[in-house]
Amino acid sequence: MSPIHRVNSWLILKKMAYLLEPDANCSICPRLFGFRSENKRAYPDFFNAPVPAFGSIDAKLLVVGLAPGLKGANRTGRPFTGDGAGDLLYPTLIKTGLAKGNYQASPDDGLELVNARITNAVRCVPPQNKVTANETAACGDFLTSEIKAMKNLKVIIALGLVAHGAVLMAMGHKKSAFKFAHGATFKIGGSESEIMLADSYHCSRYNTNTGRLTAEMFDDVFLSAVKLIKGRN
Ligand code: SF4
Asked: How far apart are the first and last CA of the chain?
């Protein structure tokens, strides 16, 4: 191996091992930076920054949502904490053995994730809960880094179509490589570190109010993920 190749290989390995986190004032997405700045003025007590993942980097399960909610994670600083989506997600995690404690919609409620980690495809709150393809792609570098840093990762649950596409891109696939379907699972990892993707409708209040997603349907996705993790030990 030539010296140049050795240096390049080392740089690639170093990059893969390094967990890339956005700066608290990340301005890669101008629209989201602007919205965050507006929210800092309107809600100075809110977190108002890219919301970091919650849970151990050594976990076997990664749950990927869309983006922080304005008065949920953007307020509290913990994914899915303080909004309607968290009211379904966290009790489901507790019920399926992936969390312990009492969820009280606050980052200091002492809730602990068990072998699970939660993040979002886009780390900053978007206006009207809608992100653009450019924003998903831009924040995808952080998701890619996170997935690479999770050395024990076996299963990723994508909550909704945007998260599904973001995970596929983070794993080096085209967004269209696998069609999103609630309850579907796909092998998406390389041959040596096979990772499964499990799809679910997003646990938003809208989806539960309209009956698109029921608590039973959501339970089934997480119970299947737990079985997949056990089967992949
Ligand atoms: S969404 Fe991600 S890439 Fe865009 S500004 Fe926020 S942290 Fe930066």
From this structure: 35
